[in-house]
Amino acid sequence: MSDRPPSKSTRALRLHAVADQASFCTRCELHEHATQTVFGAGRATARLMFVGEQPGDKEDRTGEPFVGPAGTILDRALEQLGIERRSVYLTNVVKHFRWEASGKRRIHKTPGVEHVRVCLPWFDQELAIVRPEVVVCLGAIAARALLGPSFRLTAQRGRLVQWDRPGRVLATVHPASVLRSDDRGAAFTAFLDDLAVAADATRVAAATRR
User: Fold this and answer.
1) Is the pTM here over 0.90, yes or no?
2) Among 67, 89, 119, 197, which has the minimal tally of Cβ within 10 Å of its Cβ?
3) Which ranges of 94-152 does DSSP label H, i.e. alpha helix?
4) What's the CA gap between 89 and 183, in Å, rounded?
5) In what order do the strands lie in the sheet with 89-92?
């Protein structure tokens, strides 16, 4: 039997099949108020995967991850690093938007531990199919979901660490935090520096495989 990984087309088909299954997910109550499941998107053979907390309002309406204000920050960072958005894989640990009403607005509400627990099997399938060299956790919720409840983003931010799965993982802030910062310039630079570590690691990993 061949040890070669599945082809790009095979992986894309597998991702499509899992996304279709996830679109009918009713494992927790979040599906009752969300517009739709927001599954991951991007290259099925991406070496670099980004994992956020949950979709936001715009993502919930469009069905695509990272297309709101936080996505704009991430796109800007990727552009400055010379990385095409279509070359990476973008997803969230929770696939439905948790929100509460504030007048006519839908305000983000942090998903609970149980929401993360029941949704993680979808991410596990994404990870098994894509097989990235580096996974970047965007924010503390994503980092603790993947690295355990004892993980502290403030202490371990921007460091490549080993985990119980292939490849390596790095945690940084969620790009939405850049928008909330009193000094957006400094916050963006720090965010960019973290992503540069992950990008360099994927390039080194790619070179060693040649």
Assistant:
1) yes
2) 197
3) 113-130, 140-147
4) 29
5) 41-42, 89-92, 48-52, 134-138, 168-172, 160-162
Q: Which amino acid is at 196?
A: A
Distances in Å between the alpha carbon of 27 and those of 30, 37, 96, 118, 121? Answer: 9, 12, 11, 6, 11
Which tokens belong to 201?
């690691």
Specify whether the CB–CB gap between 40 and 50 falls below 8 A.
Answer: no
The tens place of each residue's pLDDT in the chain, 210 residues long, gives 445 678 888 999 999 999 999 999 999 999 999 999 999 999 999 999 999 999 999 999 999 999 999 999 999 999 999 999 999 999 999 999 999 999 999 999 999 999 999 999 999 999 999 999 999 999 999 999 999 999 999 999 999 999 999 899 999 999 999 999 999 999 999 999 999 999 999 988 777 766
Hey, what CATH topology would domain 8-208 get? Uracil-DNA Glycosylase, subunit E (3.40.470)
Handedness of CA 115, 174, 52, 55 (dihedral sign): positive
Name the token pair of 209: 């495989």
- Phi, psi angle pair for 81, to nearest 5°: -90, 0
